Inverse folding.
């Protein structure tokens, strides 16, 4: 049996509403890797946050990978090393953060271990609490960072319309150099134009010499679209958005609280 490649989003897909992986999902994932297939967590989260989940379930071994920051950094969990990284420039990140501040919207970025902001806002505190990562407030992000960051995120809990207006306001600057996506109605995320979940799927398929038709991608929100379209089979959760379901090859019967990933593995992988 030839190896297959499974990409799955975390929040709203692999993770249940209580932010755990169900026993059904965990057992199916371990079985597919035991049989020689490759399992990839594909998330907008920072690598540190995603590693906490993979380590919790014993996925720090051969066959397990993480595509973090919406494809900006790919990590080999068994080898404990990054195998791909595509960052933004510090100048581009600084521009986004400055324009967001002028618009009265929170924005931040990341280093290898922390969430970094120039302002200690309620949105910043809510974000670091939800993602369970340390947060650092600095005077000048561009001066503080030693390396180019992988992602910047703009947050408004007033909803997507305000974020859409912000995106349009900087489009002349960003459209030919940065990729953007909405991971939910409150998060507008920017990355290098060459980094996306879809590009990371194609990269790992080539890395393992697995034909694209033998790849499966699972998600629920708009930031999963590129990998849903890139994968041989694009799967959207029963709890996914109506927009995403329009692009699905398959919609699960189960939702993220009832073993949807186990359903996908049994149907398409093993």
């Amino acid at each position: 049996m030839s190896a297959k490649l499974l990409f799955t989003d975390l929040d709203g897909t692999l993770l249940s509403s209580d932010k755990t992986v169900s026993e059904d999902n965990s057992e199916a994932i371990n079985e597919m890797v035991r049989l020689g297939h490759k399992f990839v967590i594909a998330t907008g989260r920072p690598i540190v946050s995603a590693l906490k989940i993979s380590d919790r379930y014993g996925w720090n071994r051969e066959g397990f990978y993480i595509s973090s920051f919406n494809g900006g950094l790919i990590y080999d969990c068994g080898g404990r090393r990054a195998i791909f990284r595509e960052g933004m420039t510090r100048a581009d990140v600084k521009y986004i953060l400055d324009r967001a501040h002028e618009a009265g919207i929170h924005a931040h970025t990341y280093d290898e271990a922390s969430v970094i902001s120039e302002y200690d806002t309620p949105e910043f505190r809510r974000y670091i609490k939800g993602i369970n990562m340390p947060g650092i407030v600095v005077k000048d992000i561009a001066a503080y960072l030693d390396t180019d960051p992988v992602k910047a995120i703009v947050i408004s809990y007033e909803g997507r319309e305000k974020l859409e207006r912000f995106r349009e306001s900087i489009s002349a600057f960003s459209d030919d150099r940065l990729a953007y996506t909405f991971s939910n109605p409150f998060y507008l995320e920017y990355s290098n134009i060459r980094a996306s979940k879809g590009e990371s799927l194609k990269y790992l398929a080539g890395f393992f010499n697995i034909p694209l038709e033998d790849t499966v991608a699972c998600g629920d929100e708009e930031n999963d679209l590129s990998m849903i379209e890139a994968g041989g089979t694009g799967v959207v959760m029963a709890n996914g958005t109506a927009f995403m379901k329009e692009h699905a090859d398959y919609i699960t019967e189960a939702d993220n609280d009832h073993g949807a990933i186990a359903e996908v593995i049994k149907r398409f992988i093993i």
Residues 5-86+195-269 form a domain with the Rossmann fold fold (CATH 3.40.50.1000). The chain is about 35% helix and 25% strand.
